[in-house]
Amino acid sequence: LAIVSAVLAMVYMFRGGSTYTQRLMLCFMIAELVHNAGYLLELFAKTQREAMIAVKVEYLGSSVVAIFFMMFINNYCGKRENIFFERLMLLCGCAVIIMVWSSPMHELYYRDVNFVHSGLYPHLKLTYGPGFYFYMVTCTVIPWAISVYTLFASLRKEKSKKRIGKLWFIIAGATFELFVLVLYVFKLFPEGYDPPPSSRAVMFSLLI
Description:
By secondary structure, the protein is mainly alpha-helical. The protein is 72% helix and 6% strand. A two-stranded antiparallel sheet has the order 1-2.
């Protein structure tokens, strides 16, 4: 459902003209589509090797999706772009991808990797290294925090009722995604279940 909704959202975007805002929307939708495709592969993985390949595909999208969303929000709200900061954040995302894809050669990202058959379905049980916390801070916490702050700052200045309604809609979607992410981080979902990819794809599709 999440992948289908993401594809339909991109088809809808292609019907209009291409602006910088639309290109940013396309970037975070493609990134989230890759994230969901990797997660789908992980669901059907039968071995540890297959599951780890799927996870590597997931990180090709998840490492940059929140950053592209932050860039979109900044542009949508008329905030002056900080090119240096945005490029730095994207470099952090690339660094995470490199760490994940080269993880068999070091323990920066994963200290231990096991494939278990407990929970809802067979899945990876991972012990994370410092690279994972680098990912959480640079590719998740900072971009989402800036996005929410920018939305509320824009809301205080906005006069148009129609645009205020759109901003509240985006804020509601972002809040829901953050709520799901917090529940996942504190392991309040069934073992092996990873809801953020699906919830984020649906949220982005509704925003478009």
